[in-house]
């Protein structure tokens, strides 16, 4: 019995120190020796192996390495090493006689000893980071780095890497990365463009009146001067304002105080209107004709009350006749109140003008007042030619005719207007 127990102890002691043999590797304690075994990847190993020798195999793939201190994978088929391939415990590595074309120096950060002799370096711009690392690293090399040579391309074969590092040119951006960067740039540009358009629309809707005032101020001072020059001619008035006497309060606040120089010295024009400038005792039709022909322009303020006033329609007809005779834009039509285009078409006197000519409409939004005044002043100042159409021939208006009153069309009064032309 004691003899059997002693034999078992002896056998256990023997196998503790005798090398263990496996089909793929030979183990000596924490050392795994696996040379020339036709391995294509690292075989299964105990997790505590510290030294691994895999020279003269066909290794292409690494895995399962966690505590290796020294490793020899020379004379294998390695072509690429990923950055996190080796554990941080690895200090000594032999990669000689492989097919590494452009090693990544990040892979070697934990090493103190390295052999890269007889690799097939491909000398192009992708080798730049490796060449820079060779010049600054503290790693000890098994052979002088001066012996490392280019294998590819054929034009640079056997050229020392040190010589190539002096003529290397930076890589152009990869096409995929360039496309990705371009897509990002286009996305940012489109996003900024959309946001800009939205904000511009919002700002224009809210502040277009102020923007127009700033624009006219800049243009006026830089290009036109502070005040436009009036044309020099022999007419007595710059503009004859034809409107219904029922609209006088509105016209005075909205137009006369903005245009007539007798209301303010800042205003440009000498205006003529019935309540002030018609001669008492003179025939009313004669007064209208004299006012039209002694003024550069006739401004007809067309409202619901205007269309019910036969004398206003007569003035419109006479001014339109002068326009067709001189073929210049001597008639300026301003529509005020809530009147649609089709409602104006009901009145024969103004129908031909509305169909063929441009006219102004009093703005509903106070922000557009400055734009309106600018357009009105421009029409009074500038003479442009007009074309004559067959349907333009005006017919005499009937002073006694009273158009049917339109329901729901109100002429709105306006408050004080702070802006001056």
List keywords for this structure.
12% strand, 12 helices, 8-stranded mixed beta sheet, 15 strands, Rossmann fold, disordered C terminus, rod-shaped, 421 residues, 5-stranded parallel beta sheet
Average the pLDDT over all residues and give the rounded result.
81
CATH superfamily of the largest domain: Toll/interleukin-1 receptor homology (TIR) domain
Global shape: rod-shaped
User: Helix/strand-derived class?
Assistant: alpha/beta
For the record, the CATH architecture of the largest domain stands as 3-Layer(aba) Sandwich
Tell me what portion of residues adopts beta-strand conformation: 5-15%
- Poorly predicted residue ranges: 5-22, 397-421
Strands in their spatial order, largest beta sheet: 1-2-3-4-5-6-7-9
Count of folded domains: 3
Rounded to an integer in angstroms, the radius of gyration calculated over CA atoms is: 49 Å
CATH top-level class of the largest domain: Alpha Beta
Oligomer: single chain
Q: What kind of sheet is the major sheet?
A: 8 strands, mixed
Topology overview:
Layout: H1 2-17, E1 20-21, E2 26-28, E3 31-33, E4 51-53, E5 70-72, E6 92-94, E7 113-115, E8 121-122, H2 128-136, E9 140-141, E10 150-152, H3 161-164, H4 175-224, E11 237-242, H5 248-259, E12 271-272, H6 274-277, H7 284-293, E13 295-302, H8 304-308, H9 310-326, E14 331-335, H10 341-344, H11 348-356, E15 360-361, H12 369-381
Parallel strand pairs: 3-4, 4-5, 5-6, 6-7, 7-9, 8-10, 11-12, 11-13, 13-14, 14-15
Antiparallel strand pairs: 1-2, 2-3
Helix pairs in contact: 7-9
Protein name: Toll-like receptor 5
Keywords: Glycoprotein, Immunity, Inflammatory response, Innate immunity, Leucine-rich repeat, Membrane, Receptor, Repeat, Signal, Transmembrane, Transmembrane helix
Subcellular location: Membrane
